[in-house]
Amino acid sequence: MKTKNTLIAVAAGVGAAGLIYALWPKNRIPKDAIVEPFDKNKFQGLWHEIARLPNRIEKNLKDLTQNYTLNEDGTIRVVTRAYNFDKNKPVEAMGTAKFTGADTCGRFKIAYFLPLSLDHNILDVDAKYNYTMVSGNSLDHLWILSRETNIPHEVRERFLHKADALGFDISKLEWMA
Predict the structure, then answer these.
(1) How many angstroms separate the CA atoms of 100 and 137, rounded?
(2) CB-based contact 164:133 (threshold 8 Å)
(3) E strand residue ranges, 87-150
(4) 68: nearest Cα among 44, 87, 51
(5) 51: left (phi over 0), alpha (psi -120 to 50) or beta
(6) What is the CA 58 to chain-centroid distance, rounded?
(7) Per residue in 55-87, pLDDT tens?
(8) How distant, in Å, are the alpha carbons of 19, 92, 168 from that of 25?
């Protein structure tokens, strides 16, 4: 009986380790690629999704926007809206973003459904905070956002060059505008 329990415990441990390894990001974003200094006040407001790497979370969504509002406690309220063309209806999710370090560094986590949180790294932003490029912690998640529903060619090229240099597969980007 003791041997059987030990085998079950070992098998469970190996299974858990395998699951963690499978889910753990393999190609992490270097810390020096994240915007610093970052101005959280200039980042507030409405952003339109211009391009993204395909992902399960946004499958069947179009016209995605994110609205960032600073809370009194220093966290950021995030309201994400989109249209689900598969279900033929609008969808909305509200979350809270918390900086993972100093709030002058563009790295935070957004929790839509506790305890699950999504990493967001600001990889580039123009001086007026009209265009930004955001990633998760791996090369699997990348977004290009704009205050408007389009983006100038020169900004697009700058973002694509930087994303490519970091190792993102920019050929897989889905362009929304």
Answers:
(1) 12
(2) no
(3) 89-99, 107-113, 116-125, 131-135, 142-146
(4) 44
(5) beta
(6) 11
(7) 998 999 999 999 999 999 999 999 999 999 999
(8) 12, 27, 13
Q: Is the dihedral of CA 49, 50, 55, 61 positive or negative?
A: positive
Question: What tokens appear for 142 in the block?
Answer: 């990348």
The answer on pLDDT for 88 being more than 90 is: yes
Question: Measured between alpha carbons, how far is residue 151 from residues 26, 51, 123, 159, 177 in Å?
Answer: 30, 10, 16, 11, 8
Per-residue pLDDT reduced to its tens digit, 112-130: 987 789 999 999 999 999 9
Report d(CA 138, CA 14) in Å as an integer: 24
Fold category of 33-175 in CATH: Lipocalin (2.40.128)
**Radius of gyration of the chain measured on its C-alpha atoms:** 19
CB of 139 closer than 8 Å to CB of 30: no
Question: Can you give the pTM of this predicted structure?
Answer: 0.83
Question: Which amino acid would we find at residue 171?
Answer: S
Pair of tokens at residue 77: 């309220």
Domain borders along the chain are 33-175
**Structure-token match 């699950």, residue found:** 116
